[in-house]
Amino acid sequence: MASHESPSITTYPANVPNATVNLVKESTAALPPPANTVHHIACTSATAVTSNALDKNFVEHSLSPNKAAESAVAAAISSNKYVKLNVGGSLHYTTMGTLTKEDNMLRAMFSGRMVVLSDSEGWILIDRCGKHFSAILNYLRDGSIFLPDNRYEIAELLAEAKYYLIQGLVLQCESALERKSDEIDPICRVPIITCLKEEQELVRNTRRPIVKFMYNRGNNKYSYTNSSDDNMLKNLELFDKLSLRFNGRILFMKNIIGDDICEWSYYGNHRKVAEICCTSIVYATEKKQTKVDFPEARIYEETLNVLLFEPDRPSPGLIIAHTENNSDNTRITHHCQSDDDLDESSRSHRVRRIHVNSNRPV
Protein backbone atom coordinates (compact mmCIF):
# COMPACT_ATOMS: atom_id res chain seq x y z
CA MET A 1 0.00 0.00 0.00
CA ALA A 2 1.51 3.26 -1.14
CA SER A 3 2.42 5.62 1.55
CA HIS A 4 1.51 9.26 1.22
CA GLU A 5 3.88 11.81 2.58
CA SER A 6 2.20 14.39 4.64
CA PRO A 7 3.42 17.92 4.44
CA SER A 8 6.00 18.71 7.08
CA ILE A 9 4.76 20.93 9.84
CA THR A 10 7.21 22.76 12.05
CA THR A 11 6.23 22.88 15.66
CA TYR A 12 7.77 24.99 18.30
CA PRO A 13 7.90 24.29 22.08
CA ALA A 14 5.51 26.25 24.18
CA ASN A 15 8.28 27.98 26.02
CA VAL A 16 9.79 29.58 22.84
CA PRO A 17 9.00 33.30 22.72
CA ASN A 18 6.85 34.72 19.87
CA ALA A 19 9.66 37.02 18.69
CA THR A 20 11.88 34.02 18.05
CA VAL A 21 9.14 32.24 16.09
CA ASN A 22 8.64 35.29 13.86
CA LEU A 23 12.39 35.49 13.21
CA VAL A 24 12.51 31.86 12.08
CA LYS A 25 9.58 32.40 9.67
CA GLU A 26 11.28 35.40 8.09
CA SER A 27 14.51 33.43 7.59
CA THR A 28 12.59 30.58 5.98
CA ALA A 29 10.85 32.94 3.57
CA ALA A 30 14.22 34.34 2.47
CA LEU A 31 15.50 30.89 1.34
CA PRO A 32 15.41 30.14 -2.50
CA PRO A 33 12.47 28.06 -3.74
CA PRO A 34 12.92 24.45 -4.81
CA ALA A 35 14.26 23.56 -8.27
CA ASN A 36 10.92 22.46 -9.71
CA THR A 37 9.40 25.74 -8.59
CA VAL A 38 12.15 27.79 -10.36
CA HIS A 39 11.63 25.87 -13.62
CA HIS A 40 7.91 26.52 -13.49
CA ILE A 41 8.47 30.26 -13.00
CA ALA A 42 11.00 30.45 -15.89
CA CYS A 43 8.66 28.71 -18.31
CA THR A 44 5.85 31.02 -17.33
CA SER A 45 8.05 34.11 -17.90
CA ALA A 46 9.29 32.88 -21.32
CA THR A 47 5.78 32.15 -22.44
CA ALA A 48 4.69 35.65 -21.46
CA VAL A 49 7.61 37.26 -23.32
CA THR A 50 6.92 35.24 -26.47
CA SER A 51 3.27 36.08 -26.29
CA ASN A 52 4.07 39.78 -25.95
CA ALA A 53 6.41 39.67 -28.97
CA LEU A 54 3.84 37.95 -31.11
CA ASP A 55 1.20 40.42 -30.05
CA LYS A 56 3.54 43.29 -30.92
CA ASN A 57 4.32 41.90 -34.39
CA PHE A 58 0.66 41.29 -34.98
CA VAL A 59 -0.16 44.86 -34.07
CA GLU A 60 2.61 46.22 -36.32
CA HIS A 61 1.49 44.17 -39.30
CA SER A 62 -2.12 45.07 -38.70
CA LEU A 63 -1.27 48.78 -38.61
CA SER A 64 1.01 48.79 -41.75
CA PRO A 65 -0.58 49.09 -45.26
CA ASN A 66 1.25 45.92 -46.34
CA LYS A 67 1.58 47.14 -49.92
CA ALA A 68 3.53 45.14 -52.50
CA ALA A 69 5.58 48.23 -53.42
CA GLU A 70 6.81 48.70 -49.85
CA SER A 71 7.80 45.09 -49.55
CA ALA A 72 9.66 45.26 -52.87
CA VAL A 73 11.56 48.35 -51.80
CA ALA A 74 12.31 46.88 -48.38
CA ALA A 75 13.64 43.70 -49.97
CA ALA A 76 15.87 45.69 -52.31
CA ILE A 77 17.25 47.79 -49.50
CA SER A 78 17.92 44.86 -47.21
CA SER A 79 19.75 42.85 -49.90
CA ASN A 80 22.31 43.56 -52.59
CA LYS A 81 20.19 42.15 -55.39
CA TYR A 82 19.19 43.85 -58.59
CA VAL A 83 16.21 46.16 -58.72
CA LYS A 84 13.65 45.67 -61.47
CA LEU A 85 12.37 48.93 -62.97
CA ASN A 86 9.55 49.43 -65.43
CA VAL A 87 9.92 52.92 -66.90
CA GLY A 88 7.03 53.59 -69.24
CA GLY A 89 7.08 50.01 -70.49
CA SER A 90 10.88 49.87 -70.84
CA LEU A 91 12.34 47.27 -68.46
CA HIS A 92 15.66 47.87 -66.72
CA TYR A 93 17.80 46.01 -64.17
CA THR A 94 20.14 47.90 -61.87
CA THR A 95 21.39 47.93 -58.29
CA MET A 96 20.51 50.01 -55.31
CA GLY A 97 24.08 51.33 -55.30
CA THR A 98 23.58 52.83 -58.76
CA LEU A 99 20.22 54.38 -57.95
CA THR A 100 21.42 55.92 -54.68
CA LYS A 101 24.86 56.93 -55.90
CA GLU A 102 24.02 60.62 -56.16
CA ASP A 103 21.56 62.89 -54.41
CA ASN A 104 18.68 62.86 -56.86
CA MET A 105 15.05 61.88 -57.10
CA LEU A 106 15.86 58.18 -57.58
CA ARG A 107 17.70 58.13 -54.27
CA ALA A 108 14.69 59.72 -52.61
CA MET A 109 12.40 57.13 -54.18
CA PHE A 110 14.37 54.16 -52.88
CA SER A 111 15.24 55.55 -49.48
CA GLY A 112 11.68 55.42 -48.22
CA ARG A 113 11.05 59.16 -48.53
CA MET A 114 8.68 58.74 -51.49
CA VAL A 115 5.84 56.38 -52.26
CA VAL A 116 6.60 53.95 -55.10
CA LEU A 117 4.38 51.55 -56.99
CA SER A 118 5.06 48.00 -58.14
CA ASP A 119 3.15 45.28 -59.95
CA SER A 120 2.48 41.72 -58.88
CA GLU A 121 5.82 40.52 -60.33
CA GLY A 122 7.88 42.99 -58.33
CA TRP A 123 8.60 45.50 -61.11
CA ILE A 124 8.80 48.98 -59.64
CA LEU A 125 6.83 51.36 -61.85
CA ILE A 126 8.06 54.82 -62.90
CA ASP A 127 5.61 56.85 -64.95
CA ARG A 128 8.09 58.37 -67.44
CA CYS A 129 9.17 57.70 -71.00
CA GLY A 130 11.84 55.01 -71.02
CA LYS A 131 13.55 56.18 -74.23
CA HIS A 132 16.49 57.82 -72.43
CA PHE A 133 16.44 55.95 -69.12
CA SER A 134 19.39 53.77 -70.20
CA ALA A 135 21.41 56.96 -70.62
CA ILE A 136 20.29 58.06 -67.15
CA LEU A 137 21.53 54.79 -65.62
CA ASN A 138 24.82 54.93 -67.55
CA TYR A 139 25.45 58.43 -66.25
CA LEU A 140 24.81 57.29 -62.67
CA ARG A 141 27.20 54.37 -63.18
CA ASP A 142 30.06 56.23 -64.90
CA GLY A 143 29.51 59.90 -64.11
CA SER A 144 29.54 60.89 -67.80
CA ILE A 145 28.04 59.69 -71.10
CA PHE A 146 28.33 60.33 -74.82
CA LEU A 147 25.43 62.54 -75.85
CA PRO A 148 23.41 62.01 -79.05
CA ASP A 149 24.35 63.96 -82.16
CA ASN A 150 20.82 65.18 -82.70
CA ARG A 151 20.13 68.26 -80.61
CA TYR A 152 16.45 67.38 -80.35
CA GLU A 153 17.39 64.12 -78.61
CA ILE A 154 19.75 66.09 -76.36
CA ALA A 155 16.82 68.34 -75.45
CA GLU A 156 14.72 65.25 -74.61
CA LEU A 157 17.52 63.86 -72.44
CA LEU A 158 17.82 67.25 -70.73
CA ALA A 159 14.13 67.12 -69.80
CA GLU A 160 14.59 63.65 -68.24
CA ALA A 161 17.69 64.77 -66.35
CA LYS A 162 15.78 67.71 -64.91
CA TYR A 163 12.93 65.42 -63.86
CA TYR A 164 15.27 63.05 -62.01
CA LEU A 165 17.23 66.04 -60.58
CA ILE A 166 20.59 64.83 -61.91
CA GLN A 167 22.41 68.13 -61.92
CA GLY A 168 25.63 66.93 -63.55
CA LEU A 169 23.81 65.54 -66.58
CA VAL A 170 21.72 68.72 -66.80
CA LEU A 171 24.88 70.82 -67.09
CA GLN A 172 26.37 68.46 -69.69
CA CYS A 173 23.24 68.62 -71.86
CA GLU A 174 22.93 72.40 -71.59
CA SER A 175 26.57 72.84 -72.59
CA ALA A 176 26.09 70.58 -75.61
CA LEU A 177 22.98 72.48 -76.70
CA GLU A 178 24.87 75.77 -76.53
CA ARG A 179 27.52 74.37 -78.87
CA LYS A 180 24.87 72.95 -81.19
CA SER A 181 23.13 76.32 -81.44
CA ASP A 182 26.18 77.74 -83.25
CA GLU A 183 26.16 74.97 -85.85
CA ILE A 184 24.20 74.91 -89.09
CA ASP A 185 20.76 73.40 -88.82
CA PRO A 186 20.98 69.93 -90.40
CA ILE A 187 17.36 70.13 -91.53
CA CYS A 188 17.00 71.51 -95.04
CA ARG A 189 13.84 73.56 -95.45
CA VAL A 190 12.68 74.36 -98.97
CA PRO A 191 9.71 76.76 -99.20
CA ILE A 192 7.14 76.12 -101.91
CA ILE A 193 6.05 79.26 -103.77
CA THR A 194 2.33 79.30 -104.49
CA CYS A 195 1.90 82.96 -105.43
CA LEU A 196 3.97 85.87 -106.63
CA LYS A 197 3.58 87.74 -103.34
CA GLU A 198 5.26 84.92 -101.41
CA GLU A 199 8.23 84.98 -103.76
CA GLN A 200 8.62 88.75 -103.42
CA GLU A 201 8.46 88.53 -99.63
CA LEU A 202 11.19 85.86 -99.52
CA VAL A 203 13.46 87.75 -101.90
CA ARG A 204 13.02 90.99 -99.96
CA ASN A 205 13.46 89.58 -96.44
CA THR A 206 16.36 87.15 -96.82
CA ARG A 207 20.01 88.18 -96.81
CA ARG A 208 21.25 84.94 -98.32
CA PRO A 209 21.53 84.30 -102.06
CA ILE A 210 18.56 82.43 -103.53
CA VAL A 211 18.21 79.60 -106.02
CA LYS A 212 14.67 79.12 -107.30
CA PHE A 213 13.67 76.06 -109.27
CA MET A 214 10.42 76.30 -111.21
CA TYR A 215 8.73 73.01 -112.04
CA ASN A 216 5.30 73.00 -113.65
CA ARG A 217 4.39 70.23 -116.06
CA GLY A 218 0.89 71.65 -116.43
CA ASN A 219 2.18 74.48 -118.63
CA ASN A 220 3.01 72.15 -121.48
CA LYS A 221 0.77 72.43 -124.55
CA TYR A 222 2.51 69.74 -126.54
CA SER A 223 3.83 66.27 -125.97
CA TYR A 224 7.27 65.71 -124.51
CA THR A 225 10.21 64.23 -126.31
CA ASN A 226 11.50 60.82 -125.33
CA SER A 227 14.25 62.13 -123.06
CA SER A 228 12.28 64.96 -121.47
CA ASP A 229 10.88 62.95 -118.59
CA ASP A 230 14.32 61.63 -117.64
CA ASN A 231 15.86 65.09 -117.85
CA MET A 232 13.08 66.54 -115.73
CA LEU A 233 13.81 63.97 -113.06
CA LYS A 234 17.55 64.77 -113.23
CA ASN A 235 16.80 68.45 -112.68
CA LEU A 236 14.74 67.60 -109.62
CA GLU A 237 17.44 65.32 -108.21
CA LEU A 238 20.13 67.97 -108.75
CA PHE A 239 18.00 70.56 -106.97
CA ASP A 240 17.67 68.26 -103.94
CA LYS A 241 21.40 67.54 -104.02
CA LEU A 242 22.38 71.21 -104.16
CA SER A 243 19.89 72.20 -101.45
CA LEU A 244 21.53 69.69 -99.11
CA ARG A 245 25.07 70.60 -100.13
CA PHE A 246 24.67 74.37 -99.65
CA ASN A 247 22.11 74.30 -96.84
CA GLY A 248 22.56 77.33 -94.60
CA ARG A 249 24.44 79.31 -97.26
CA ILE A 250 21.85 79.51 -100.05
CA LEU A 251 18.09 79.69 -99.75
CA PHE A 252 16.55 77.14 -102.11
CA MET A 253 12.88 77.41 -103.03
CA LYS A 254 10.50 75.77 -105.49
CA ASN A 255 7.97 77.52 -107.69
CA ILE A 256 4.97 75.59 -108.99
CA ILE A 257 2.87 78.45 -110.40
CA GLY A 258 5.21 79.94 -113.00
CA ASP A 259 4.70 80.15 -116.76
CA ASP A 260 7.62 77.94 -117.73
CA ILE A 261 8.01 74.19 -117.33
CA CYS A 262 11.56 73.88 -115.99
CA GLU A 263 13.65 76.93 -115.11
CA TRP A 264 16.41 77.88 -112.65
CA SER A 265 16.59 81.43 -111.27
CA TYR A 266 19.34 82.98 -109.14
CA TYR A 267 19.02 85.97 -106.79
CA GLY A 268 21.62 88.05 -104.98
CA ASN A 269 21.26 91.27 -102.98
CA HIS A 270 17.46 91.06 -103.32
CA ARG A 271 17.39 90.95 -107.13
CA LYS A 272 17.58 88.39 -109.91
CA VAL A 273 21.07 87.97 -111.38
CA ALA A 274 20.70 84.96 -113.68
CA GLU A 275 18.28 82.37 -114.98
CA ILE A 276 18.55 79.12 -116.94
CA CYS A 277 15.66 77.96 -119.09
CA CYS A 278 15.70 74.22 -119.63
CA THR A 279 12.76 73.91 -122.04
CA SER A 280 12.39 74.52 -125.76
CA ILE A 281 10.02 73.72 -128.61
CA VAL A 282 11.31 71.37 -131.28
CA TYR A 283 9.93 70.26 -134.64
CA ALA A 284 11.39 66.78 -134.86
CA THR A 285 8.09 65.36 -136.08
CA GLU A 286 5.05 66.73 -137.80
CA LYS A 287 3.82 67.97 -134.43
CA LYS A 288 5.48 70.38 -132.08
CA GLN A 289 7.09 68.81 -129.04
CA THR A 290 8.41 70.18 -125.77
CA LYS A 291 11.98 69.28 -124.97
CA VAL A 292 13.41 69.44 -121.44
CA ASP A 293 17.21 69.53 -121.17
CA PHE A 294 19.53 68.96 -118.25
CA PRO A 295 22.34 71.57 -118.37
CA GLU A 296 24.19 70.24 -115.33
CA ALA A 297 27.40 72.21 -115.88
CA ARG A 298 25.50 75.51 -116.29
CA ILE A 299 23.48 74.90 -113.15
CA TYR A 300 26.62 74.20 -111.09
CA GLU A 301 28.34 77.27 -112.52
CA GLU A 302 25.54 79.69 -111.67
CA THR A 303 25.08 78.15 -108.22
CA LEU A 304 28.74 78.77 -107.44
CA ASN A 305 28.52 82.29 -108.86
CA VAL A 306 25.60 83.20 -106.62
CA LEU A 307 27.74 82.37 -103.57
CA LEU A 308 29.49 85.68 -104.22
CA PHE A 309 26.40 87.36 -102.79
CA GLU A 310 26.65 85.69 -99.38
CA PRO A 311 26.29 87.99 -96.35
CA ASP A 312 29.44 89.52 -94.84
CA ARG A 313 31.25 89.02 -98.15
CA PRO A 314 32.49 91.96 -100.25
CA SER A 315 30.43 92.59 -103.36
CA PRO A 316 31.94 91.64 -106.73
CA GLY A 317 32.38 95.34 -107.59
CA LEU A 318 34.46 95.94 -104.46
CA ILE A 319 36.58 92.87 -105.15
CA ILE A 320 37.35 94.12 -108.66
CA ALA A 321 38.17 97.59 -107.39
CA HIS A 322 40.46 96.19 -104.71
CA THR A 323 42.27 94.07 -107.30
CA GLU A 324 42.74 97.04 -109.58
CA ASN A 325 44.19 99.21 -106.80
CA ASN A 326 46.71 96.54 -105.80
CA SER A 327 47.86 95.78 -109.35
CA ASP A 328 51.06 97.16 -110.86
CA ASN A 329 50.74 100.59 -112.47
CA THR A 330 52.51 99.43 -115.61
CA ARG A 331 50.06 96.56 -116.06
CA ILE A 332 47.15 97.13 -118.40
CA THR A 333 43.91 96.96 -116.44
CA HIS A 334 40.74 95.82 -118.10
CA HIS A 335 37.89 97.78 -116.55
CA CYS A 336 34.87 95.59 -115.91
CA GLN A 337 31.52 97.04 -115.06
CA SER A 338 29.64 95.10 -112.40
CA ASP A 339 25.93 95.05 -111.76
CA ASP A 340 26.61 96.82 -108.46
CA ASP A 341 28.04 99.79 -110.37
CA LEU A 342 24.82 100.33 -112.34
CA ASP A 343 21.94 102.48 -111.27
CA GLU A 344 18.63 100.98 -110.16
CA SER A 345 16.98 101.46 -113.54
CA SER A 346 19.60 99.44 -115.39
CA ARG A 347 19.74 96.43 -113.10
CA SER A 348 16.65 94.75 -114.51
CA HIS A 349 18.36 94.60 -117.93
CA ARG A 350 21.51 92.90 -116.63
CA VAL A 351 20.04 89.48 -115.79
CA ARG A 352 21.96 86.65 -117.46
CA ARG A 353 19.36 84.64 -119.31
CA ILE A 354 20.68 81.35 -120.56
CA HIS A 355 18.70 79.21 -122.98
CA VAL A 356 20.02 75.72 -123.25
CA ASN A 357 19.19 75.21 -126.91
CA SER A 358 21.40 78.15 -127.96
CA ASN A 359 23.93 77.45 -125.17
CA ARG A 360 24.73 81.16 -124.78
CA PRO A 361 23.26 84.11 -122.86
CA VAL A 362 20.71 86.23 -124.66
From TrEMBL:
Residue span(s) of domain BTB: 81-149
UniProt entry tagged with the keyword Metal-binding: no
Record keywords: Nucleus, Ubl conjugation pathway
CDD domains, per database record: BTB_POZ_KCTD10-like_BACURD
Metabolic or biological pathway, per its Swiss-Prot or TrEMBL entry: Protein modification; protein ubiquitination
GO biological process: negative regulation of Rho protein signal transduction; proteasome-mediated ubiquitin-dependent protein catabolic process; protein homooligomerization; protein ubiquitination
Coiled-coil region(s): none
Cell location: Nucleus
One example GO MF annotation: ubiquitin-protein transferase activity
GO cellular component, one term: nucleus
One protein family per Pfam: BTB_2
Top-level taxonomic group: Eukaryota
PROSITE patterns in UniProt: BTB
Protein family: Belongs to the BACURD family.
Record PANTHER family: BTB/POZ DOMAIN-CONTAINING ADAPTER FOR CUL3-MEDIATED RHOA DEGRADATION PROTEIN FAMILY MEMBER, RE57120P
Protein name: BTB/POZ domain-containing adapter for CUL3-mediated RhoA degradation protein 3
Organism: Phallusia mammillata
